[in-house]
Amino acid sequence: MKAVLVFLCAIATTLAQNLLLVEEQKLHHIHDACQANPATNADHHLLHDLSANLDNPVVGAHMLCESKGVGLQKKNGQLDIETIRNKISLTITDTSRVDHLVKECAIPKKSPEKTAIHLFMCLDRNGVTYFHEF
């Protein structure tokens, strides 16, 4: 019985790692697509120093593009709470922590762009770093 449990845990861990890898690859493709569009292309230096570029409209447009692309925000810019919860759950297994992060990070701001920036920075600050590291 122990051997079966260990085997099932190993399979679950492998599946979770593969799912995270797929999500990371998906985000890279979304990032590349946002960069390929002149309206959402942003210099990498601006993106890697996001906290210093919060009010840069190009950075906001890029982050909103990525957020919509990965499904964190809907086409109209509203947050998709269920998708956010699911994405956080890819790296955080404690459901109470996931709930806490959703409440802390999924907060509408003055604009969809500011909402996207806040969301990504908050997730990164709280250890959900597969999206971006700023």
From TrEMBL:
It comes from Aromia moschata. Keywords: Signal. Gene3D superfamilies: Pheromone/general odorant binding protein domain. This is Uncharacterized protein. Residues 1-16 form the signal peptide. It holds the Pfam family PBP_GOBP. GO terms for molecular function: odorant binding.
